[in-house]
Amino acid sequence: MENYKRVQRIKKQNEPRLMRYSHVVGVGIGKKKIETTFIRCINIYVTKKLPEEKLSKDEIIPKKIEGVPTCVIEVGEIKAHQDKERNE
Fold first, then answer.
1. Residue 40, number of CB atoms within 10 A of its CB
2. pTM for this model (two decimals)
3. Is pLDDT at 15 greater than 80 in this prediction?
């Protein structure tokens, strides 16, 4: 499996650029199953996952970053949660 520290470094270096995509709401590290093996990947969380043909060229998330695969995950809109008990 890909070295975690290497993936973490690549994620950290590329996170500011990835967060500039209009539909990206978060970036993390995960595991992706390819055939019978799990490999580390960079998870990219988006509001809505769309087919590449519906995105402009500058909105398409790369399939790999510095050799590390990416995994696009649809999570919807992210909103801050207010703890009601805390304010009572």
1. 20
2. 0.82
3. yes
